[in-house]
Amino acid sequence: MEKTIAVLPGDGIGPEVTSAAVKVLKLIARRYNHSFKLSYGLIGGAAIDALGNPFPEETADACQASDAVLLGAVGGPKWDANASGNRPENGLLAIRKHFGLFANLRPVKAVPALLGASPLKEEKASDVDLMIVRELTGGLYFGEPKHRTHEAAVDTLSYSREEIERIVDKAFELARVRRGKVTSVDKANVLETSRLWREVVEEKKAAYPDVRVEHQLVDSCAMKLITDPAAFDVVVTENMFGDILSDEASVITGSLGMLPSASIRSDGFGLYEPVHGSGPDIAGKGIANPAAAILSAAMMLRYSFGMDTEAAAIEEAVQTVLEDGFRTADVAEEGTRALSTEEWTERILEQ
Amino acid sequence: MEKTIAVLPGDGIGPEVTSAAVKVLKLIARRYNHSFKLSYGLIGGAAIDALGNPFPEETADACQASDAVLLGAVGGPKWDANASGNRPENGLLAIRKHFGLFANLRPVKAVPALLGASPLKEEKASDVDLMIVRELTGGLYFGEPKHRTHEAAVDTLSYSREEIERIVDKAFELARVRRGKVTSVDKANVLETSRLWREVVEEKKAAYPDVRVEHQLVDSCAMKLITDPAAFDVVVTENMFGDILSDEASVITGSLGMLPSASIRSDGFGLYEPVHGSGPDIAGKGIANPAAAILSAAMMLRYSFGMDTEAAAIEEAVQTVLEDGFRTADVAEEGTRALSTEEWTERILEQ
Ligand SMILES: CC(C)[C@H](C(=O)O)[C@@H](O)C(=O)O
Ligand SMILES: CC(C)[C@H](C(=O)O)[C@@H](O)C(=O)O
Q1: Range B20-25 average pLDDT
Q2: What is the mean pLDDT of residues A79-85?
Q3: Where are the beta strands (DSSP E) in chain B?
Q4: Mean pLDDT for chain A?
Q5: How many Cβ atoms are within 10 Å of A151's Cβ, its own excluded?
Q6: What's the distance, CA A172 to chain centroid?
């Protein structure tokens, strides 16, 4: 197949880990006879510095002309004092909204070799294999009115039935090819939007008789993600709850540096990026862990290009290299070797 | 001193644990020469059943005539199908709003004897001693407009400067008599209300030069509560974030059944209740853990009546009894004895 990929390295360790993922994509193209055309663009702080805008038109155009986007990371202390609206993360919010990427998928799967790094007891973390499906273009992030005076401020949490329906459908579809369970998270005892959310889930479930559905309040879910994380399969929720719960979930297995994410819409176009940040403290040192970026590239192959075999090949390579005891510094332990970003990526390519 | 206490046992295990706390209060009164006048009232499901309203006027009057309120728990499957607005938890929301109980204090402290029950590795949980200060009468819970049609729904997150100021002051005051650190949690990179929140915290801090302040985004905080919970002292945040984070925090030390809470306002009047729910599955069996209710009574003595010595006496008794290996069934381990609610309360009274 021929595909065009927009690569937006961004800030901090973004360029290093993206470059590792690009190497893997190139190898996949050779091995499986695909042609991936890459076009590079600026986003976040790098784009502010060069063009005064965290999501410049040039970047929007490059993405528009592509089948998928691979992003590194945005942000860093350099831009922390920028006015709100002109921060690196505004680039992220803008690209999501611009392309209507309403479904954010964040898988969290325990890597047996890394459980020692989990803050949870190993028996709690070892069977974790869940996917948070977060609504990404609605809710408190974008609702109007949204304004502030010296005396008061307001944000608006609004959802239309249609916005809820499409994300709920996405969750059901994913549960079908996973373990067949959806946990819908809301605050239906307090919020009107949550009551509408729950109503939509109840209506939709008839169309997916093979999927079990449970409703959970967001506060209970925040507890259960710690006390019994292995109980979850697909977790679907609105934008702000998803922001909090997916970050919470990301630390339970001790493999935060390894977690990929996808932000997609219905036609297959999507943005793929590591869950970790731009790591300003280690940027430029060549020691960043590229696993999350590489696994994000695998998600791209699976969700945007339908290349399941190729995606699985990457995922297996990552598992094997870790099990063989090759690590980057962030996840190194006694008895394992800490490699540089490049060395570790070489291992993946060999696999 | 003479004090009047409204006792609202509520539903499920509420009456059992409240009765244990009342025994402790009576003993304290005898020992320290106070007079506590108790007046009982209905709330939650019990009030719906008897009077068709989860927070009836009779109860409001009884509380109004009191110096503080001791509450058990509300809710249960019996009322799950009730229309929203007529559920047990509406009694809780109503009493908070009616009395302007804007500050919800939830201490989470590791109990060394119970660390085995923590889902976290013991070295993570062992030094935890934090207090979540949650704004309780504003934000998404009560903001208008709040409505729903078949096609869409909206909730409103609004805060006035004054609402933020008083809760932030409360957090600073508490930090002063604790370890001198406040973590203010918001989502200032997305929400206008959070930007106002952060502005108020920045302004207020000049008045508390002895307190260190840090700002944390709610998603980062959800992570750090698991990866480094011992780093927190006082955590202050808005209503919905506080709901999620305080429940998350409540499970990290493995002593959820032991956690008390206070919902107070500026004049000392307050509502005290266990963090745990109404435990419908064990209700009526006489095996519920009364520690959270007893420790809530201790918080009442401290925050509403200024009886620090008396409060500390209760807290020490609880520690000692646990260390001596006396437990209720929920926290029993090998080598400890599982007592009934009454037997365990007897131990506390002896201490
Ligand atoms: C940077 C920020 C605006 C963003 C969000 O809140 O969505 C981030 O936390 C994320 O989860 O991708
Ligand atoms: C019962 C519910 C309305 C309540 C809340 O969300 O405030 C509860 O979760 C709590 O934290 O006390």
Answers
A1: 98
A2: 88
A3: 2-10, 35-40, 68-73, 103-109, 129-135, 143-148, 152-160, 181-186, 212-217, 234-237, 260-264, 270-274, 326-328, 337-339
A4: 96
A5: 9
A6: 18
What local confidence, expressed as pLDDT, does residue B334 receive? Answer: 82
Give the closest of B93, B159, B223 to A247, CB-based: B223
pTM, two decimals, is 0.97
Residue A330 among known ligand-binding residues: no
- A148 to B193: CB separation less than 8 angstroms, yes or no: yes
Nearest-CA residue for ligand 2 atom 6 is B243
Q: Total domain count for chain B? A: 2
Strands (E), B11-162: 35-40, 68-73, 103-109, 129-135, 143-148, 152-160
Burial of A83 (0-12, 13-18, 19+ CB in 10 A): exposed
CATH number, position B266:
3.40.718.10
The model's pLDDT over A272-320, given as tens digits with 9 standing for 90+, comes to 999 999 999 999 999 999 999 999 999 999 999 999 999 999 999 999 9
Stronger pLDDT, B42 or A83, i.e. the higher one: B42
According to the annotation, is A165 in a ligand binding site? no
β partners of residue B4: B37
What's the CA-to-centroid distance between A243 and ligand 1, angstroms?
A: 7
Query: Is B187 part of the annotated catalytic residue set?
Result: yes
CA dist A304 and A308 (Å) reads 10
* Mean pLDDT value of segment B285-290: 96
From CA A280, how far away is CA A288, in angstroms rounded?
A: 10
Tell me, what's the pLDDT at B213? 98
B56 is in an annotated binding site: no
Of the candidates B119, B154, B219, the beta carbon closest to that of A156 is on B154
A349 lines ligand 2 (CB under 6 A): no
* Cβ contacts of B223 on chain A, cutoff 8 Å: 247-248, 250-251, 256
Q: What is the mean pLDDT of residues A154-174?
A: 98
In chain A, % of residues over pLDDT 90: 92
> Do residues A287 and A180 both lie within one domain?
no
Q: Is residue B121 part of a domain?
A: no
Closest-CA residue, ligand 1 atom 11, reads A243
DSSP code of residue B1: -
Q: What is the mean pLDDT of chain B?
A: 96
The domain boundary residue, chosen from A198, A223, A251: A251
The domain of A47 spans: 1-101+255-351
Q: A180 with A269, same domain?
A: no
Mean pLDDT along residues A93-101 = 97
The answer to whether residue A108 is domain-embedded is no
The domain that contains B186 carries what CATH number?
3.40.50.2300
Average pLDDT for A54-63: 98
What's the Cα-to-Cα distance from A57 to each of A84, B4, B139, rounded to whole Å? Answer: 19, 67, 36
Distance B66 CA to ligand 1 centre (A): 46
- Beta-bridge partner residues of B108: B130
Ligand 1: residue whose CA is nearest its atom 3? A89
Assess whether pLDDT exceeds 90 at residue A256: no
Q: Are residues B103 and B194 in the same domain?
A: no
Last residue of one domain, picked from the residues A251, A281, A310? A251
